[in-house]
């Protein structure tokens, strides 16, 4: 234990640097394992709870309609009870909230919000709400992995990377898609590609996939779809399909935001009750529209020519998803988007099926629908391409998927001015997620990477002693003065002030110095020094009264110039 405590300061300094290291990779794998275990527990709880009333997991058509409609009503009541116990102000959940925390709190997730997400997500998915398990997976993954960094008191820049590792492991453990999980983190959550972040996130994603394969096997959700290589003559029609996917994604996002605005003033319990009532009513008649995505996908696989029923399921799935997510039911949006995309793609496959009198293309179009809807709704084209490739486990889907994804994305952005649903939700909730260029650069460097020992500390000195030390001080060395008042230490920077000396007053100026924890990044230093563009901050380890070192404004300025010429 003592040997570990002796090594910890060296580890903390190492991880303050924005560079690839073996230590960060190992910690990323540990965080990924913790995140994967949380997701496995989450999934097993859902399967176990559904086992009491469903014949097959997530198949709500297997129970009697007179019982089916009671499930979402009971689920809404239990979710509301959990929210009441944990506190309504801890009810911000899901991927948008995680993106906000990644940008503003280095991925550190509040405990009560995580409790809401864990138990609320289990109840929502078990009771038939049209939400996905990836929302809780992202939240729980970020919490589990960032907890490692918090326990070890690592620099916040490395905790942020660990949170990304947990998110990748969580998605990988949820869908058994390690590559798509890694791309999703870089493209949607972190919104950057840097090699020192990429490597540990990749390793954590591998750990998540191995963990879920060990418990749930190697099955993939879309492996049952019959995917064949499409002839070139399909490609013009695929462009039209991409346009339709882009338009439907815009319709979905627009109505989601409309619901959010309509019901924003309703109390949470009332919104949950309405979501339960809508799910109960629609689910009574359209059971395949209930749940995450499995029911809709299975029906599309088994009955690709039942166009009328597929249209009904598409309508039901759209309505249930909009009301569930729009009214605050805990869960993700990606799973339902998969279901909507698969059903819509299967419906669009009817045109080539009529031309060639063969419905064998339905499976391929179903996967393409999922890719187009994900790309256009989430603004994650690369993650969508990789996800369908992994879920379908068939390389023949690559070229047509690329064509559909590009068409859907360009259509929804240029012709409908559609934004990512996550960013629209963040704007609605007024949660900041944008950083200035300087903060974006400085958040990646911990203060321990820059902290300097080039200073002299005087404890409660008189004026003569201060003058004596200032006379012999050689730049860039600084003179730090400690004043103790009511058992509390206050620190000041002592320096000559020419303007004061000309007026006949004391030529020594005492500037208050703010202390920052060793876990902080250079972004917090900028926040303290930016207004005056001079001075210093002192860094402390555990006790704010004991300085570990200082950081000067010129060090911060040099870092900004070196990193991105931002000053």
From TrEMBL:
Membrane spanning residue stretches: 21-49, 69-88, 161-185, 197-216, 236-256, 268-287, 307-329, 336-356, 362-389, 396-416
Annotated compartments: Membrane
Keyword Transmembrane helix belongs to the record: yes
Protein name: Chloride channel protein
Major site of localization recorded for this protein: membrane
CDD domains according to UniProt: Voltage_gated_ClC (cd00400)
UniProt entry keywords in alphabetical sequence: Chloride, Chloride channel, Ion channel, Ion transport, Membrane, Transmembrane, Transmembrane helix, Transport
PANTHER family in UniProt: CHLORIDE CHANNEL PROTEIN CLC-E (PTHR43427)
Ion transport among keywords: yes
SUPFAM superfamilies per record: Clc chloride channel
A Pfam family assignment: Voltage_CLC
Membrane topology term: Multi-pass membrane protein
């Amino acid at each position: 234990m003592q040997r570990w405590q002796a090594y910890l300061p060296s580890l903390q300094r190492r991880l303050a640097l924005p560079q690839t290291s073996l230590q960060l990779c190992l910690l990323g794998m540990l965080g990924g394992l913790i995140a994967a275990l949380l997701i496995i527990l989450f999934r097993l709880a859902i399967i176990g709870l559904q086992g009491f009333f469903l014949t097959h997991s997530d198949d709500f058509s297997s129970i009697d309609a007179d019982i089916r409609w009671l499930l979402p009503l009971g689920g809404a009541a239990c979710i509301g009870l959990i929210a009441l116990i944990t506190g309504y102000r801890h009810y911000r959940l899901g991927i948008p909230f995680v993106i906000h925390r990644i940008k503003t709190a280095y991925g550190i997730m509040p405990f009560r919000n995580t409790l809401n997400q864990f138990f609320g997500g289990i109840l929502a998915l078990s009771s038939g709400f049209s939400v996905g398990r990836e929302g809780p997976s992202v939240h729980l993954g970020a919490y589990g992995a960032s907890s490692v960094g918090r326990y070890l008191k690592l620099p916040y820049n490395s905790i942020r990377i660990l949170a990304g590792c947990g998110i990748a492991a969580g998605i990988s453990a949820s869908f058994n898609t390690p590559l798509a999980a890694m791309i999703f983190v870089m493209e949607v959550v972190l919104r950057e590609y840097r090699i020192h972040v990429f490597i540990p996130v990749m390793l954590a994603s591998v750990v998540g996939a191995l963990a879920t394969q060990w418990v749930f096997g190697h099955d993939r959700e879309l492996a049952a779809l019959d995917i064949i290589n499409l002839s070139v003559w399909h490609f013009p029609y695929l462009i039209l399909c991409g346009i339709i996917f882009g338009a439907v994604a815009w319709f979905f996002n627009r109505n989601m935001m409309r619901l959010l605005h309509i019901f924003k003033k309703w109390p949470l319990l009332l919104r949950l009750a309405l979501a339960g009532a809508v799910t109960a009513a629609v689910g009574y008649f359209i059971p395949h529209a209930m749940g995450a995505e499995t029911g809709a996908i299975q029906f599309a696989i088994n009955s690709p020519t039942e166009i009328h029923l597929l249209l009904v399921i598409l309508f039901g799935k759209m309505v249930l998803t909009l009301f569930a997510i729009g009214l605050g039911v805990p869960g993700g949006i990606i799973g339902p988007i998969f279901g909507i995309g698969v059903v819509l793609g299967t419906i669009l496959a009817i045109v080539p099926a009529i031309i060639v009198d063969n419905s064998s293309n339905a499976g391929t179009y179903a996967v393409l629908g999922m890719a187009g809807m994900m790309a256009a709704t989430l603004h994650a084209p690369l993650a969508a391409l990789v996800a369908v490739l992994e879920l379908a486990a068939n390389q023949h889907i690559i070229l047509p998927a690329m064509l559909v994804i590009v068409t859907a994305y360009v259509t929804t952005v240029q012709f409908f001015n559609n934004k990512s649903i996550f960013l629209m939700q963040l704007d609605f909730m007024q949660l900041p997620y944008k950083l200035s260029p300087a903060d974006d650069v400085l958040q990646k460097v911990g203060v321990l990477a820059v902290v300097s020992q080039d200073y002299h500390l005087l404890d409660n000195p008189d004026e003569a002693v201060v003058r004596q030390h200032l006379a012999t001080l050689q730049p860039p060395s600084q003179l730090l003065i400690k004043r103790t008042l009511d058992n509390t230490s206050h620190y000041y920077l002592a320096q000559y002030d020419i303007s004061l000396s000309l007026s006949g007053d004391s030529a020594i100026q005492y500037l208050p110095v703010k202390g920052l924890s060793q876990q902080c990044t250079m972004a917090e230093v900028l926040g303290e020094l930016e207004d005056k563009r001079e001075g210093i901050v002192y860094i402390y380890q555990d006790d704010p009264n004991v300085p570990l070192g200082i950081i000067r404004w010129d060090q911060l300025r040099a870092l900004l110039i070196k990193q991105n010429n931002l000053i």
